[in-house]
Amino acid sequence: MMSLCATMHGAAALSLCLLAGCGSGYSLPAQTSDAAAASAIPAAQTPDPAACSQYTWARGAKTFFANRCYSCHASAGANFDANSQSSVSGGFASILQNVRNGRMPPGGPAIDAATQTQLAAWQGCNFP
N or C: which end of the chain has fewer CB within 10 A? Predict the structure, then answer.
């Protein structure tokens, strides 16, 4: 699989990539199912733990989901509960797919590429 960093361009992208631990040859696992996406990635591909501590549920992800998803996804009855780390991580493959294909958030604005990259790196760190 092509490294996430190999697909990114620009200084901001490089900074995000280094924060995500891509400099160590890390590439995102294939997304086949929500269960597979939520499982731990192999140790050989695990990003630097220091990079994984930069963007966590408490340090950014919770705020993102509260600001961009909570108005529609405020309970488990709405596909996932945007206020629950376990609910978000359990359905993350589907969430990210819908963000990337423009289905979410409905009515926009679209989630920018840098934020999508940051969320994917959070997934690669196993949702700290």
Answer: N
- 28 within 8 A of 118, measured Cβ to Cβ: no
Nearest to 56 by CA among 8, 126, 5: 126
CA distance 32 to 83: 24
Please provide the DSSP assignment of 34-98 as one string.
Answer: HHHHHSPPPGGGPPPHHHHTTS-IIIIIHHHHHHHTTTT-SSGGGSS-TT-HHHHHHTHHHHHHH
Global confidence as pTM: 0.60
Average pLDDT, the chain: 72
Q: Say how far apart CA 112 and CA 35 lie, in whole Å.
A: 26
Q: Is the pLDDT assigned to residue 14 strictly greater than 50? A: no
Question: How many CA atoms lie within 13 Å of 25's alpha carbon, on the beta-carbon side?
Answer: 3
